[in-house]
Amino acid sequence: MFLPKKPTSFKIRLLTFLLNLFPTYRRTGGRVIFVTTDFSDVHVRLKLGWGTKNYVGTMFGGCMASAADPIYMIQLMRMLGEEYIVWDKSASIRFKRPGDRTLYIRFLITEELLASIKERVLTEHEFDIELSADWVDEEGTVYATVEKVLYIASKAFYKEKQRARKNKK
User: Fold this and answer.
1) Hey, is 118 helix, strand or coil?
2) What is the pLDDT of residues 29-40, one digit of tens each?
3) According to the model, what pLDDT value does residue 13 have?
4) φ, ψ for residue 39, nearest 5 deg
5) What superkingdom heads the lineage (predicted)?
6) pTM for the whole thing?
7) Could you read off the pLDDT of 15-63 as tens digits, one per residue?
8) Checking phi first, is residue 127 left (phi over 0); if not, alpha (psi -120 to 50) or beta?
9) Count of C-beta atoms within a 10 Å radius of residue 116
């Protein structure tokens, strides 16, 4: 569906396989079908089938939302490393048309975005960022847009904030 720009490795294919086996993610109906070695590009497929159909025979919106839910957080955790804290804060989905076929979504974190995040953490210590991605069909027609708000902080700042909060109690 999407044209990957970077090759993937055996280790990443194994992690992808294990994520797709993880019961909570498996039940969404979504399948991670491609991950670059640096996690900057992740592709997910969601087939229309008995486990993803709603009452009227189209894609259940909850499947679209839940299959997309953990991806940006996992990407940023992997790309930023252990010096950072990344938490999901909120998610929303805006449906544009009924999902009546297999859909795909691409999560792309560019080097520019990653550098911007690191710079903001240096100056602000913590902030919320909004990222979005579209569920599309093979022709690129948009069926829904998923918006995620993530909290990002330096680990040292976050731990100090938690310690101060604990000491207030």
Assistant:
1) helix
2) 999 999 999 999
3) 87
4) 70, 10
5) Bacteria
6) 0.91
7) 899 999 999 999 999 999 999 999 999 999 999 999 999 999 999 999 9
8) beta
9) 12
Determine the Cα–Cα distance for residues 146 and 131; give it in Å rounded to an integer.
Answer: 8
Note the pLDDT tens digit of each residue in 70-108: 999 999 999 999 999 999 999 999 999 999 999 999 999
Residue 43: closest CA among 91, 103, 113, 110: 103
Copy the structure tokens of residue 42: 């992740």
Domain boundaries, the chain: 10-168
Assigned CATH topology for domain 10-168: Thiol Ester Dehydrase; Chain A (3.10.129)
**Residue located via tokens 């569906």:** 1
Token pair for residue 94?
A: 């805006």
Is there a contact between 12 and 34 (Cβ–Cβ < 8 Å)? no
